């Protein structure tokens, strides 16, 4: 057995037997991992509440053939304690954890930029200086960008024109100009495009000064765009796996 250390944010926990848990953690160096924590559900657990969702922890683990085993956990930042008392911030944080898990599709694949985005996003959320919806949308836009799915915001995703943007077409890749816009495409207000760009770039002065109706419009577009890419992205990943590994599928092609 090999012992290793890492730090990570707890994304999710599941019951394992009577007293144990499987903990899903996004780590700094090992990407997303799942590990077993023994006795964590007993009242006198040596882990206490350290292995709860949102916790940023320093970990020691035993590498095993199946699930790695958590042997030590020290709290670095207990984000969950603050978030639990504030419903809007808690729901925004929950969406961040879920998105971080979905966007790190391969277990054990290093995902340093996604880890840093999550830690930064949770810290900003806990500090409470910005509307939680803006913090969430900034996190989602940047996470999409890290995953290689950044939407076009300041240019037409079809012809590349930078002026006269009139619509937003999710399947096409983002903003479209008046000529490329197809019937049925969303038509966001120009300040909504400006807000999306500010969030992607981390321009909080602009984002904090935005109008509530543009925040609502921005959130709707970002959520729809993320949803579309998660569904289609995961489907395309399955194609990649099929093409490289399984011979029975290769015969079919
Ligand atoms: Zn165009």
Structural class, by secondary structure, is alpha+beta
Low-confidence stretches: 238-253
CATH architecture of the largest domain: Up-down Bundle
Assembly category: single chain
User: Any ligands, ions or cofactors bound here, and which?
Assistant: zinc ion
CATH top level of the largest domain is Mainly Alpha
How many domains make up the coordinates? 2
Quick check: average pLDDT?
90
**CATH fold title of the largest domain:** de novo design (two linked rop proteins)
Strand-and-helix sequence, N→C? EEEEEHHHHEEHHHH
Number of helices, counting only DSSP H or I runs of 4 residues or more? 8
Strand content: 15-25%
Distance between the termini: 41 Å
Written description of the protein model:
There is one protein chain. The chain is an alpha+beta fold. It has two domains: 2-80, OB fold (Dihydrolipoamide Acetyltransferase, E2P); 81-237, de novo design (two linked rop proteins) (Up-down Bundle). Helices cover 43% and strands 23% of the residues. The chain has helices at 79-83, 87-103, 112-127, 132-146, 190-201, 204-208, 212-244, 247-252, and strands at residues 2-16, 20-27, 32-37, 55-63, 68-78, 165-169, 174-177. The strands form two sheets. It has a five-stranded mixed beta barrel with strand order 1-2-3-5-4. Strands 6-7 form a two-stranded antiparallel ribbon. Helix 5 packs across helix 7 (212-244). Bound molecules: zinc ion (ZN). Residues 156, 158-159, 161, 176-177, 179-180 line the site of zinc ion. It comes from Actinomadura macrotermitis. One of its GO terms (cellular component) is bacterial nucleoid. InterPro entries: ARFGAP/RecO, DNA_rep/recomb_RecO_N, NA-bd_OB-fold, RecO, RecO_C. This is DNA repair protein RecO.
């Amino acid at each position: 057995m090999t012992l290793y250390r890492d730090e990570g944010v707890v994304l999710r926990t599941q019951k394992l037997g009577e007293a144990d848990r499987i903990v899903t953690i996004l780590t700094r160096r090992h990407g997303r991992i799942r590990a077993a924590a023994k006795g964590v559900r007993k009242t006198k657990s040596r882990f206490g509440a350290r292995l709860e969702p949102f916790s940023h922890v320093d970990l020691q683990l035993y590498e095993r053939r199946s699930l790695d085993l958590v042997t030590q956990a020290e709290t670095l930042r207990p984000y969950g304690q603050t978030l639990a008392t504030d419903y809007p911030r808690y729901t925004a944080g929950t969406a961040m954890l879920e998105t971080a898990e979905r966007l790190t599709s391969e277990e054990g694949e290093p995902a340093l930029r996604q880890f840093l985005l999550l830690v930064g996003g949770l810290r900003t959320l806990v500090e409470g200086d910005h509307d939680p919806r803006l913090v969430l949308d900034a996190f989602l836009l940047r996470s999409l960008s890290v995953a290689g799915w950044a939407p076009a915001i300041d240019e037409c995703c079809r012809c590349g024109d930078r002026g006269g943007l009139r619509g937003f077409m999710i399947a096409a890749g983002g903003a479209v100009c008046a000529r490329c816009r197809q019937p049925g495409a969303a038509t966001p207000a120009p300040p909504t495009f400006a807000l999306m760009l500010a969030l992607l770039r981390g321009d909080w002065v602009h984002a904090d000064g935005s109008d509530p109706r543009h925040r609502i419009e921005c959130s709707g577009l970002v959520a729809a765009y993320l949803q579309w890419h998660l569904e289609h992205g995961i489907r395309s990943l399955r194609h990649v796996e099929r093409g490289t590994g399984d011979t029975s599928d290769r015969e079919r092609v």
